[in-house]
Amino acid sequence: MLKRHFPLVLVVVLVVLALLLPLLLPWSYHEIDWDAVRAPAFSGSHIFGTDEIGRDRLARLAAGTRVTLMVAIAAALVSLIVGIAWGATAGWIGGRVDEAMMRIVDGLYALPFMFIVILLMVVFGRSILLVFVGIGLVEWLTMARVVRGQVIALKQRPFVLAAEAAGTSSTAILLRHIMPNIAGVALAYLMLTVPQVVMVESFLSFLGLGVQEPLTSLGILVKEGADDMDMTPMGLALPGGLLVLILVCLTIEGERLRDRFS
Amino acid sequence: MTLYEIRNMAATIAGNRLVEDVSLIVEAGHCTAIIGASGSGKSLTCLSPFGLTPGAASGTMILDGIDLGGADSAQIRDVRRRLAGFIFQQPLTALTPHLAVGTQLQEATMQAGAARPSRRELVRKLERVGLSRADERLDQFPHRLSGGERQRVMIAAAIAHDPKLLIADEPTSALDASLRGEIMTLLDELRAETGLGLLLVSHDLASVEGHADQLVVMDKGRVVERGLASQVLASAVEDYTRRLVAATPRLQEPAPALSRPGKILLETRGLGVAFDRPGWRRGKTRALADAGIVLRQGESLAIVGGSGSGKSTLGRAIAGIGPVTEGEIFWETMLLPERRKRSLDMRRLIQPVFQDPVASLDPHWQVVDIVTEPLRNLRADLTQVERNEMARRALVDVDLAEDLLTRLPASLSGGQAQRVAIARAIVASPQLLVLDEATSALDPLVGAGILKLLARLQNENGLSLLFITHDIAAARRLCHRVAVMEGGLIVETGQMQDVIDFPRHPATQKLIAAS
Fold first, then answer.
1. Could you tell me which of B273, B286, B320, B276 has the C-alpha nearest to residue A96?
2. Does residue B289 share a domain with residue B237?
3. How many domains does chain B have?
4. Which listed residue, B48, B54, B346, B508, has the most CB atoms within 10 A of its CB?
């Protein structure tokens, strides 16, 4: 189990570290150590050194991972709930309702996502909430399509017909027969949505549209590191490497789950 | 003349011996049939010597003087190329979808080194297997052909290089009932014409009866009995074979004693169902038109027809789990409304049982929850304890052990799962069961057990049955009357024995010829 799910174990370890480190480190992610600007690794109490204005890199990495994963999990959950509700309704009712609901999904898919997020940011200013809204707006679409397909396939299964003949109401069939049977597939797509959201969030932050300073995220750290990479390459390599590691691990686990359930 | 002989063959997959100690003989121009339930090792037995399974075969297997037991993979490939032809169960997946029929046939002809065949020759090959408009067919792709046509193309390709041995693995199981007889007759003709030896694999004794010269009965990877087909059928020595022969429904067997039907229970008038065409095309497809049936209390009515004849659509409309476009369904004097408008009291009267026993049970539910589901809705007056007690009694009623109550469907065998489905159907004391191919997916012995169970339930509880099937011989064991369907229409109805003795409509005649 441990060996087979090494990627998952690794992510869990990283998350635990990100949560615990603030309690252990002498520096918080926004404190400036005036005596050690651009300190190299293992200098004094700064394990990975400090950035160009003297903030502890390790503390900032932990904070960035926390924010990024928090955004990702929250947005993925929102997409799960909205996607299942929308897709299950469309698939179960079928006919014209299904047509109309899925055309709305197609329409949203066609919108230029980045453009809308940038517009939202410009109009309402930068905030974590808007990052949620922007990402959630897009990510539920795939979930809705997947769930709708599953519901339509299950609707024709004999056990659902038998439940109807047994007098079970539509709502009860949906909740007690359909939902448990799509849970596996939904979970698999949830696992795949998380790394996608991580990517989108990092991208927005990299463009300067993500969370606000001094709060940080992996995307912001990558951007700061990239600005300063000729002086201290480690500033880019650390958050960049961490981001890639998390993305790869989550994607591997997600695809494994998907293969198992579909 | 002995063409192919297997002596003491064993087949292993990943170290597991799945087939042991099999011996059989195929003579040129004759047919040897291997009969057995699913998992008895019959396919492994016939395909492993040719390297067509993941398993390895050992023993003596001599085809036309060549011992396959000691041959390496190149030699076996050479034997496959020149001496043997293969027909598989699924005609659609056995033909390459992106190649036209003519191209596949040409490839098959040239596989043993023959010169490129002319179009005339290819046409002749297709005509030989009874395909009409053969010239046109050469340019068509497999998906344009019906199941029966595809299987004929498959046969044409399998014999295109003039093999000496033809191996047919369940060649008719995936086909419509009325086509089975035709395909078997075609194989008989080809044998007589060319001296081809045929090794036939089937789970269905009835389908090889009258076609096979030799019979090999297999069970659990071993040969139970083998000998001349007529002898084995008439006087089987082994108990397993005797049970198998007894379990296989035949039209010639004596008519069963059936209970006397009572008053009229159900009547449909002008029932029709039309579905929207899929995709963007406008219009509707008529699946059922003007169906009128009458069913009395304690009576069983067989609805018999090929696939796409509308028999399941009729059953679902009556059971209230499918759409109704026009017409009326009466229960005694009460009009049964369409699908979602049926009240719980109406639901209680009619319960369905489906073909695929495993798909009929929610994989996440325990047996006890599955069986009590109708009670929770239809008998809300009962307590949980009373419901569980009724579920237990229903399980006993269908001859299942009570300890299955806590099991999940995945841990049940096909026969057990179907009995659980029947228990769910009878637990709320319905008056009519709609059985949609309820025995078709099961092995013959298991299916015969289910038929017996249904007959018993009918006698004890005065149940009426609507038995939807493609197998008129199976229906005869249970049903008083029969309605034959074709293309969405009921083309013939009558007393079971009258219809079997004097079938009037061509569709009926075909179905009877196939049994």
1. B276
2. no
3. 2
4. B48
pLDDT tens by residue, B95-152: 888 889 999 999 989 888 888 888 999 998 898 888 888 888 888 888 888 778 888 8
- pTM of the full structure: 0.81
Name the H helices within B42-144.
42-47, 73-82, 91-94, 101-110, 119-128, 134-137
State yes or no: pLDDT of B220 exceeds 70.
Answer: yes
The reply to whether residue B321 touches residue A165, judged by beta carbons under 8 angstroms, is yes
Domain assignment present for residue B61? The answer is yes
Evaluate whether residue B119 is within a structural domain: yes
Which residue of B lies nearest to A179 if distances are taken between CA atoms? B364
Residues 6+ apart with CB under 8 A from B254: none
pLDDT higher than threshold 70 for residue A192 = yes
Give per-residue pLDDT as tens, A124-181: 777 777 777 777 778 889 899 999 999 999 998 999 999 999 988 989 999 999 999 9
Looking up residue B497, the CATH number of its domain turns out to be: 3.40.50.300
Q: What is the pLDDT of residue B309?
A: 85
B199: left (phi over 0), alpha (psi -120 to 50) or beta: beta
Residues of B with CB under 8 A from a CB of A: 316, 319-321, 339-340, 344, 347-348, 350-352, 354-356, 359-364, 373-374, 376-378, 421, 424-425, 428
Contacts of B321 in chain A (CB under 8 A): 161, 164-165
- Is B296 a domain residue? yes
Which residue in this structure is represented by tokens 């637990």? B427
Residues near B341 by Cβ (< 8 Å), separated by ≥ 6? none
Q: Which residues on chain A are in Cβ contact (under 8 Å) with B425?
A: 162
Residue B381 domain-assigned? no
Q: What is the pLDDT of residue B386?
A: 92
Residue in B351, B355, B364 closest to A165 by CB: B351
Minimum CA–CA partner of A183 in chain B:
B364
The interface pTM score, or ipTM, of the predicted complex is: 0.79
Length of chain A: 262
Q: Which of B319, B339, B347 is facing A167, going by the closest CB pair?
A: B347
- Average the pLDDT over each of A15-29, A83-97, A99-113, B219-233 and give the range with the smallest value: A15-29
* Minimum-distance CB partner of B356 among A158, A164, A177: A158
- Whole-angstrom distance, CA of residue A235 vs CA of residue A49: 9
Which residues, in sequence order, are CB contacts of A71 under 8 Å at separation 6+?
A: A128, A131, A132, A135, A197, A201, A211, A217
Residue in chain B nearest A158 by alpha carbon: B360
Do B205 and B309 sit in the same domain of this protein?
no
List of domains in chain A: 65-261 (1.10.3720.10)
Interface contact flag, B377 A166, Cβ < 8 Å: yes
Where does the pLDDT of residue B280 fall: very low under 50, low under 70, confident under 90, or very high at 90 and above?
Answer: low
Residues B186 and B331 grouped into a single domain: no
Residues whose CB falls within 8 Å of the CB of residue B23, separated by 6 or more in sequence, listed in order: B5, B6, B7, B8, B9, B223, B226
Q: Tell me how close the Cα of B407 comes to any Cα of chain A, in angstroms.
A: 17
Which residues of A lie inside 8 Å of B (Cβ-Cβ)? 157-159, 161-170, 177, 180-181
Quick one: DSSP state of residue B24?
E
Pick the last residue of a domain from B191, B214, B247. Answer: B247
Residue B214's SS3 state is strand
Q: How confident is the model at residue A262 (pLDDT cuts 50, 70, 90)?
A: low
Q: Could you tell me what percent of chain B has a pLDDT over 90?
A: 32
Are both B238 and B275 inside the same structural domain? Answer: no
Q: Which of B190, B220, B247 represents a domain boundary (last residue)?
A: B247
Residue B393: other Cβ atoms inside 10 A = 13
Is residue A1 very low, low, confident or very high in pLDDT (cuts 50, 70, 90)?
Answer: low
Backbone angles phi, psi at B422, to 5 degrees: -70, -40
Assess whether B208 and B119 both reside in one domain: yes
Question: Which pLDDT score is estimated for B17?
Answer: 86
